Amino acid sequence: MTPRGRPRSFSEHKERRRGRPFNVFRDNLEHRQRMRELGKDFRPSRKWVFLFFALMHLGLAACWLLAHLVLDAVYAKWFSQYEDTLLRQYFTFLLTMTFLFLGMSILRIFVAPMRRQMEWFMQMLSAMKQLSKGNFNVNLDANPRFMGQFGPLIQGFNEMATQLNHMEQLRQEFISNVSHEMQSPLTSIAGFARALQRDDLAPETRKHYQNIIEIESKRLSRMSDNLLKLTSLESRQHPFEKKSYRLDRQLRHLILSCEPQWQQKNVEMDVDLPECTITADEDLMSQVWVNLLHNGIKFAPENGTIGVSITKINDRVRVLITDDGPGVSEEALPYIFERFYKEDKARSRSGGGSGLGLSIVKKIIDMHEGETFAYNRSPTGAAFIVDLPAS
Q1: I need a labelling partner for 66 at 20 to 30 A (CA). Which of 22, 106, 110, 369 fits?
Q2: How many CA atoms lie within 13 A of 382 on its CB side?
Q3: pLDDT for 119-163, tens place per residue?
Q4: Contacts of 336 (CB under 8 A, 6+ apart)
């Protein structure tokens, strides 16, 4: 039945049956391919295979020689008249297999691969209990010589525990950063609100305190909005609708909308925007360009220059946004797209930054299967590059 209660037509049933087997076959094929690639790490090399067969033949030859010597002694003492008979060959074979079985049993007592695998299995159960309790600092000993069929499982478990531990550290760091960043404006608001209760304040001082409270409140509101936006993007619940549109027109419109900000610092805009069409979510991409433009305006000096250009490289579209400000230190370049990362905390706080703008930029670009990175220009200034798939 359909959601409205209408029975499906024959064509609808046919379409459902037509797509299902192919999808199942494709999923199984991809699963087998992943398992085959994962098992390559635990597959013994050719030299170990040759060594194994050589040792097996050597052991078989040694057991046969030992059985032959034992039967030689027995037949020489008691059955000298039956030196070379079919029955003696049969007894030689049985004694050879007996010696081989005893030798393998003794070797298994010292090596015990199955016992080691069961020990790993019990360790894995214990480690899973630790993971369920929130302890992600667990790691199973991975020795390819003894793991056998448990090898891919142990390696996958260790990778899972490592990723969970990394996510837990990021979560704790995120909570700590949120608490710290929100504590600063709240402390300022509370302090200046107490100061406003004094009756002997001059009107100019009172107005100054009120302006500070308003600025800190706006910063707190902007931080909360960015946190909600970043959480929505990462949870994949944010609306994401791609369509084809003119990127050059979008950038020109956003540059003009930011005119009050760059005119206030007398910044010159160097724009090179040839006609370009991309397929992306226009609303999300507008947040990317606004964040990068505001970042450039914030760090550009008075009477400085901000450059915005579009170039096509093979099947990619590259947007370059530059400024002639102080640039970014080499130590900070790998971390500037992380949440709450601010190279100069005092300067960022005075500029009203929360350290979330570039994180939102990177998340949106990742959703569009693009790349974004930054580098320092010579002699001064920073450059931000966004590469996107062309239409």
Answers
A1: 110
A2: 21
A3: 777 777 888 888 888 788 887 776 655 555 666 777 778 888 888
A4: 328, 343, 358, 374
Tokens 């050719």 label which residue?
46
Taking the model in full, what pTM does it have?
0.51
* Residue 5 confidence class, pLDDT cut points 50, 70, 90: very low
Phi-psi group of 307: left, alpha or beta (phi > 0 → left; psi -120 to 50 → alpha; rest → beta):
beta
CA distances from 315 to 362, 368, 389 (A): 20, 14, 6
Beta strand segments in the chain, E: 243-246, 268-272, 277-280, 305-313, 316-323, 371-376, 382-389
Q: Are the C-beta atoms of 276 and 250 separated by less than 8 Å?
A: no
Strand pairing class (316-323; 382-389): antiparallel
The set of residues, in sequence order, having a beta carbon less than 8 Å from that of 103 and lying 6+ positions away, is 59, 63
Helix (H) and strand (E) counts in the chain: 12, 7
Dihedral class, residue 45 (left if φ above 0, else alpha if ψ from -120 to 50, else beta): beta
Angle 148-154-157 from CA coordinates, rounded to 5°? 160
Angle between helices 247-257 and 282-299 in degrees, nearest 10: 50
Residue 358 and residue 288: Cα distance in Å, rounded?
Answer: 8
pLDDT of residue 311: 92
Distance CA 84, CA 86 (A): 7
